[in-house]
Amino acid sequence: MLKLNNISKRFGGLPALSEVTFYVTKGKITALIGPNGAGKSTLINCISGIIPADQGSILFEEKEISGLQAHEIARRGVARTFQNLRVLPRLSVLENVLCGLTVKSDHSFLKAMLRLPALRHQERFLRLKAMESLDLFGLTKKADWPMAALPYGDKKKVEMARAFVANPGIVLLDEPVAGLNSEETARIGVLVKQMRTAGHTMLLVEHDMELVMDISDHVVVLDSGRCIAQGTPEEIRHNPLVLEAYLGKIGAAA
What we know:
Shape: globular
Strand content: 15-25%
CATH superfamily of the largest domain: P-loop containing nucleotide triphosphate hydrolases
Structural class: alpha/beta
Distance between the termini: 40 Å
CATH architecture of the largest domain: 3-Layer(aba) Sandwich
Helix content: 40-55%
Oligomer: single chain
Number of helices: 10
């Protein structure tokens, strides 16, 4: 589904990513983990087109996407959430999720002015899709709430509903449980598993190792911008390079 080959990125001459290579299997959850500063969010930003990689290739469904603009990559079926919430607080919950369907819309200014029947039909269809996505995440009753009125945990779910609403080929989940308590984290874990059961492919960036080991099919480990290990959760749990990377960071901080 997604293949990264020798992805490198430098900021001001300093390497953030160095020849990162791995793949994401269709219908599976691949977790991307590593200590703070390992390059995880930088890699997600490269995949989604927010920043360009300096070298290497990114193939999505066997087609090169590196070098494309973010909106072009989104239209090809790559959706994402953000480590720091990116929602529109003045819009309703439903309107925020509808924003995820812009990749499916072919509205034009002329069509909007004329209010043609085809346009009205498409709007009804998109609204139904957004409501279905909200239902999956248990937010139907809050569809008309202003985003600003939602608790933080529900805002996280709205962002996920927006990412999945257009049925993308892959969803990049950037720390979906950051800032959540244990009960909210468990709920998100259940939702992510449900999305995998429904056939969705996900690349998960997460610091919560208990969650990662519980829901992931494959784990990729970054340290200082380099891929140091890949394997099943059980293999990663006992990998000495991974243990050294995490314990070394903890020891340095102490």
